[in-house]
Design a protein that fits this description.
Low-confidence stretches: 12-30
Oligomer: single chain
Distance between the termini: 42 Å
Bound molecules: zinc ion
Largest sheet: 10 strands, mixed
Radius of gyration: 25 Å
CATH superfamily of the largest domain: Alkaline Phosphatase, subunit A
Number of strands: 21
Strand content: 15-25%
């Protein structure tokens, strides 16, 4: 017995030696300090489907961004989103918190507040004011509706607020939610003036360098270039649908007939149109370089964090769809833009001295009429039309109008105040709604969100509804549509549901601490913040439910 114990002890010592050596090596290389990169750049490409990495692979340049990140970095090729609704605000929140609406409170881009009975925009904050322009509503924004910490908050906490964290995007929510509560700054685009702005939540005045940047009126320079395809015509023909289709939207005016687009007519007149062109990505990359340089990011003793979210990919996707010439052209250009950013970082921060991750806030569906041309199912169902139909149906059954308060992303908010005051039977109303919707060819099923955990659906779909449900800000019934059915107007496409075309996102890692390789095992959007926190050796965000993807580490 005694001998056996000695043998076991000996075996433990032998087994522990390689581990001890590994620890000593890591300790030496970091010079007795915690080893961290100088800078983290988080890139979200709004509405980027995972398959764009490979569908357009041959179009990407060797010195562009995508091939460099794919071939020298690490790609998690099967990254899924674990909640509905799969929309921008929730996606940006999930990437940076590792968490879901059930805990974060960011239940959608918009939601209906069940206490105040008002519609709320995700980053609305009437207690703060615009900084950097006179557009009142554009800057009444902050992250106060977010209930948990972000990985950027945790980095600030971990370094006694010596790390600098800044979020930039065309969309307000794309800058504010990633930057977190304790951010040094968030800057977003004012569609009225063409300025990048902020709010008094962060500062009372824009930094001088940003005022100078705004004064250059970059947007007018981009408009002058107009938008013509950058690839040979045969490439678009080989990879896309025909250029012009009646099912595409026309963001540049009804008279436009496909490529090339005249943008010079917007010069000095309309600063919103740039968002629907690839130039908004160039404008943002320009701002990224300017921010890094002027804020001395990646130059101090603590890790800094720049969160960049490219929005025009989403606007262009919505208008023209994943199989359009416009979308392919946008990704061919974004590849170059990302390559430029990597070159800049290599030059100013140093190769392998910074860590980048690139992902999306959600993916997106093909245009239903494009799918129909190829006999693939799909369809359209407008939330507002559904609400009207349902309220009419309920009025005929219960002799009361407006029993539904709102429908956002197929999430039905019952009018509880009215139902209670009239002492109507809520269960009977829910049953009536479900029965009515079951007759609709586009509907798969209707789920009572409070009972979603036991709904008769595959477990991952059930879980997505549970994860997306938060009582104060969510509706009561989730309408689950059939595959391909989207909440979109008469043209273009959308996203927001639980099918893989909306939930399968790219996830690339590159630079300091990152191994070269790829992974086909399923990973989740919630794992991104956990992976970052472990890489940076900081506390994971407070609501994080993800796991570190250990395969990415060197
Ligand atoms: Zn979108």
């Amino acid at each position: 017995m005694y001998r056996k114990k000695i043998l076991i002890a000996f075996a433990i010592v032998i087994l522990a030696i390689p581990k001890m050596q590994a620890q000593t090596k890591a300790g030496n290389s970091s010079n007795m300090q915690v080893a961290r990169p100088k800078l983290v750049v988080g890139i979200i490409v709004d509405q980027m489907r995972w398959d764009y990495l490979y569908r357009f692979y041959n179009v990407y340049a060797p010195n562009g961004g995508f091939k460099r990140m794919l071939n020298q970095g690490f790609s998690c090729d099967n990254t899924l989103m674990p909640y509905v609704p799969t929309v921008t605000a929730v996606g940006h929140t999930c990437v940076y918190t590792g968490s879901v609406p059930a805990l974060t409170g960011i239940a959608g881009n918009n939601w209906f507040d069940n206490n105040t009975l008002k519609s709320v925009y995700c980053t609305d904050d009437a207690s703060v004011a615009t900084v950097g322009s006179n557009t009142k509503a554009a800057g009444e924004m902050s992250p106060r509706n977010l209930w948990v910490t972000t990985v950027t908050d945790e980095l600030r906490l971990a370094t006694n607020f010596n790390s600098k964290t800044i979020g930039i995007s065309i969309k307000d929510r794309g800058a504010i939610l990633p930057a977190g509560h304790a951010a040094n700054a968030a800057f977003w685009y004012d569609y009225q003036t063409g300025n990048f702005i902020s709010s008094t939540y962060y500062m009372n005045q824009l930094p001088e360098w940003l005022t100078q940047f705004n004064n250059k009126k970059w947007v007018d320079n981009y408009y002058e270039k107009n938008w013509a395809p950058i690839l040979p015509k045969s490439t678009y023909e080989a990879l896309c649908d025909v250029d012009e289709n009646i099912y595409e939207s026309k963001p540049f005016g009804k008279e436009e007939k496909g490529f090339p687009y005249d943008l010079s007519k917007f010069k000095g007149k309309d600063y919103s149109k740039i968002a629907s062109t690839p130039y908004a990505n160039d404008l943002l990359e320009n701002l990224a370089e300017t921010t890094l340089a002027n804020e001395q990011m990646g130059k101090g003793n603590n890790t800094d964090f720049l969160a960049v979210s490219f929005s025009s990919t989403d606007y262009i996707g919505h208008s023209f769809g994943p199989n359009s010439w416009e979308l392919l052209d946008t990704y061919a250009r974004l590849d170059k833009t990302l390559g430029k950013l990597l070159d800049y970082l290599d030059k100013t921060i140093g190769k392998n001295q910074y860590t980048i991750f690139l992902t999306a806030d959600h993916a997106g569906a093909q245009i239903p009429e494009f799918l129909a041309k190829h006999n693939i199912p799909g369809g359209r169902a407008d939330d507002r039309d559904l609400m009207k139909e349902l309220n009419q149906h309920l009025a005929s059954q219960f002799h009361q109008s407006n029993l539904i308060n709102a429908i956002w992303e197929f999430d039905v908010y019952l009018n509880h105040g009215l139902i209670d005051s009239l002492q109507l039977n809520e269960g009977a109303i829910e049953k009536s709604i479900a029965q009515f919707l079951q007759k609709d060819e586009r509907v798969l099923t209707v789920v009572n969100k409070r009972k979603a955990a036991t709904a008769a659906l595959p477990v991952n779909i059930r879980e997505m509804i549970v994860n997306g449900y938060t009582p104060k800000r969510s509706g009561d019934l989730q309408i689950v549509m059939k595959s391909g059915v989207m909440d979109a107007g008469k043209t273009g496409m959308s996203h927001g549901v639980s099918y893989t075309y909306d939930t399968h996102i790219p996830l690339l890692w590159y630079g300091w601490g990152i191994r070269q390789g790829h992974l086909n095992k399923t990973t989740y959007m919630t794992d991104i913040a956990a992976t970052l926190a472990a890489l940076l050796k900081i506390q994971m965000p407070s609501g994080c439910i993800g796991q570190p993807i250990t395969e990415v580490y060197q």
